[in-house]
Amino acid sequence: MTRKQKKVLIRIIVSAVLVLGLQFVPVQNPQLKLALFLVPYLIIGYDILKKAVLGIVHGEVFDENFLMAVATVGAIALGEYLEGTAVMLFYQIGELFQSYAVGKSRKNITELMDIRPDYANVEKDGELVQTDPDEVEIGTVITVQPGEKVPIDGIVVSGSSTLNTSALTGESLPREAAVGSEVISGCVNMSGVLRIRTTKEFGESTASKILELVESSSMKKSRSENFITRFARYYTPAVCFGALALAVVPPMVRMAAGYEACWSQWLIRALTTLVISCPCALVISIPLSFFGGIGGASAKGILVKGSNYLEALSETAYVVCDKTGTLTKGVFEVTAIRPEEDVTEDQLLKTAAYAEHYSNHPISRSLKEAYAQPVKAEAVSDVEEISGHGVTALVEGHRTAAGNRKLMERLGIPYSQPDGIGTEVHVAIDGKYAGYILISDVVKPGAKEAIAAMKASGVKEVVMLTGDARRTAQAVADELGVDVVKSELLPADKVAEVEKLLDAKGKKEKLAFVGDGINDAPVLSRADLGIAMGALGSDAAIEAADIVLMDDDPQKIATAIGISRKTLRIVHQNIVFALAVKFGCLAFGAVGMLNMWWAIFADVGVMIIAVLNATRALRFGKK
Ligand code: ADP
Ligand code: MG
Question: Looking at the 3D structure of the chain, how many domains does it have?
């Protein structure tokens, strides 16, 4: 509990004890009685009264404080001291509970993530000093002991160890780190001592970026939240005028009809409706539900950048996936090397690996892996990466090209027809065809189940888009059970395919695109929802996407959809429940069948139930 919350709690206790005590003191003098009751009333309600007055001064008249102030002052003016004070008391109990719940769920999220580093060990005069990570400059060597969190992104300069990424990815897949490997902040060092040269400032490091992202996610409001804000803007004044009418019209009508007016009876009813109609349960429980959903997701390594995206995710009808790196591992094995006559296998592989040296594409990485020798970077220049085609570069003075058939056609170089299934990398040197390398990728374990799970959770169609050749694409599609496959697409074609689907789908249906962030940033931003996968360590993908899956497990897509659906279910339950109770009570209150006690219990009760329901969103998949 914060200090502010503790202060409110003390006021609640003092005021409650005084009110209870006054029940046993028989005071006859009405002025004295009023004075005595004003003490606990002001103790508990002074800040609400102040806020109500300030609201009026600032022209924002109709808010909850105003409702409470009018209702309680009115009750006291009518001599209902106990009721007036009790309403204020329960209202404050409700507010306290709510601020506690919000604070707790906020804390939960960052705690669940548990990636905020507290210090960095910097060596000073031969000793390790715990330093505020904010003060560590780029290029400093920091030491991370076993059991500690890596505070800042960097490169290992000495030592080797295993890192646990579970706080970032939600899964405990250990990563090996040795001299030269890049490590990202937020991982926990499990075994050896690592010395790391930092490559980023603390604020630019992965852990800080992710925390920032999660914390700012509540700024992007969902439709449901906007609905409630707008609703409250019209609802509260409407209720106030309704109450005014209830206080004035029936007595006038009665007078006109020759009956006794009963002013105070109708005034009490009007005040009761004011208490009932306080919209706090809705106003608080809906953002809280979204907050819980986003928090529960981040604990599983799924970062959702705003409530609006969580809401859209729950309406996903089409999931469009990229193939390489998304559904397949993106780790290619060389299955055949077929050089032309005057070229050796080794030369062909070397040329390809050199040409691909600067590329980050999964194909390039696999070729470099297969070549298994260090590349002399100075031998490679003038590199041009043509997305969806391949690369061209000057390698040891020769114009070299490595890529698919499209690249060869573009360069006007005749190529051989490969024998065998796989992704083809054709190589040309100085405009002359040098042969091809066949590489093949494997589907990710769990990809098939992931697609089945998406369909089970209500996704209508799973589409696979790829720049790869038709035969390879079809083989993967058959293995995975995707509904539609489109192959040999350039990045621009992928955008066009997505646009076609966007046009064809229904208005309430959402289209999500899942990619690895390589070559697919335009599609990520064009889809209703861009989901980047395997984003750990890739800032570009984290920037471009609306939802970020920290690891590259396709099952997370289905998990994310599941969390979003659960969150939205809770939101709708809360809206319906709160409105039903409110309108029910209003009807009874207006005809005098409900006194102020019931009104305040209904208000606080609904709020507590709604908030408790909202916190369920935080837990997904736990029994
Ligand atoms: P995907 O849709 O499977 O993610 P991309 O759009 O990244 O594929 O690439 C499409 C095709 O373009 C690849 O299958 C490959 O044939 C070719 N290609 C792209 N980049 C490279 C590269 N760096 N080296 C060789 N071929 C490449
Ligand atoms: Mg790709």
Answer: 4
